Amino acid sequence: MAISLSVVLLLGIILVVLLRGGSIKAGPAVVAVLFGFFLASTGMADDIQRFLDSIANTINSIRF
């Protein structure tokens, strides 16, 4: 849950920066948000979550 919240917060901040910087307009941003919202309710949501969890675990296991 903490990883999901962190990712949502990070992506939200990136979206705000892109909107304010003029890199992305409001229309495409709304479409991207709605796409993510509706994608989360499909059957692919579990696969995407497992993929993101495996990436987070891989990054967490890297030792410097």
Task: Walk me through this protein's architecture.
With 64 residues, this protein is mainly alpha-helical. Helices cover 81% and strands 0% of the residues. The protein has helices spanning 2-21, 26-39, 44-61. It starts with a helix and ends with a helix. The mean pLDDT is 83.
Helix content: over 70%
Structural class: mainly alpha
Helix/strand order: HHH
| Strand residues, percent | under 5%
Largest beta sheet, briefly? none
Protein name: Secreted protein
Please outline what is shown here:
This protein is mainly α. The protein has helices spanning 2-21, 26-39, 44-61.
From the structure above, extract its key features.
mainly alpha, Secreted protein, single chain, 64 residues
Furnish the topology, listing elements before pairings.
Elements lengths: L1 H20 L4 H14 L4 H18 L3
